[in-house]
Amino acid sequence: MAKNASMDIESEVDFHEFENAVNQAVKEASSRYDFKGSIVKIDFNKTDSFVKLIAENEMKLSALESILRAKLHKRGVDSRCLKDEKIENSSLKEVRQRFLIRSGLEKDDAKKIVKIIKQENSKLQASIQDSKLKVIGKTRDDLQDCIRFLKEKQTDVPLQFTNFKS
């Protein structure tokens, strides 16, 4: 009797590491020469899963965003988990931008990934289970091929491949 191999595909964010990256970004922004004497803030709301960046102008806002993304990368958090919203101008001569933190696969993203898997490899079966995907194949090699082509496709959500069983 042949056994099947399986794995889960997730898109989770380690909020502890995310918070550490935000703290490092705040520390770097407070010590940078180009931000001296200007309004620069990073507000992290863990309960509502968003980060708000506040700066004097769009150029400084962009620099602040790049600092945050660099710190996330150093801490091992994929910055694709940030979904940016439009930039808002406030009456206090500052600009603000919120970034939603996406954790878990949304239905639309999961459907796109299932479609990609079925197009690339007909031997695999993929099913949506809450905020994860379960992928089943004949061999572990099929699953590793699936990981390879999903990484090549570079979806707009970060993916983790977990819970391998053979």
Question: Can you describe this structure?
Answer:
The protein has 166 residues and is an alpha+beta fold. The chain has two domains: 5-12 and 105-165, Alpha-Beta Plaits, CATH 3.30.70.860; 15-101, 2-Layer Sandwich (Alpha-Beta Plaits). Helices cover 37% and strands 28% of the residues. It is built from four helices and nine strands. The chain has helices at residues 15-31, 58-74, 107-120, 140-153, and strands at residues 5-10, 40-45, 50-55, 82-84, 88-89, 95-101, 125-129, 132-137, 160-165. Strands 2, 3, 4, 5 and 6 form a five-stranded antiparallel β-sheet that branches. β5 and β6 form a beta hairpin. α1 crosses α2 (58-74). The protein starts with a strand and ends with a strand. The mean pLDDT is 86.
Give short descriptive properties of this protein.
166 residues; alpha+beta; Alpha-Beta Plaits; 2 domains; five-stranded antiparallel sheet; 4 helices
Alpha-carbon distance between the two ends: 13 Å
The average pLDDT score comes to: 86
Biggest sheet features: 5 strands, antiparallel
- The level-1 CATH class of the largest domain: Alpha Beta
Uncertain stretches of 5 or more adjacent residues: none
Query: In oligomeric terms, what are we looking at?
Result: single chain
Structural class of the secondary elements? Answer: alpha+beta
CATH architecture of the largest domain: 2-Layer Sandwich
- The value of Rg in angstroms is 20 Å
SSE pattern, N- to C-terminal:
EHEEHEEEHEEHE
CATH H-level superfamily of the largest domain:
YajQ-like, domain 2
Estimated share of beta-strand residues: 25-35%
Morphology call: elongated
CATH topology of the largest domain: Alpha-Beta Plaits
**Number of helical stretches of at least 4 residues:** 4
How much helix is in the residues?
A: 25-40%
- Number of strand segments: 9
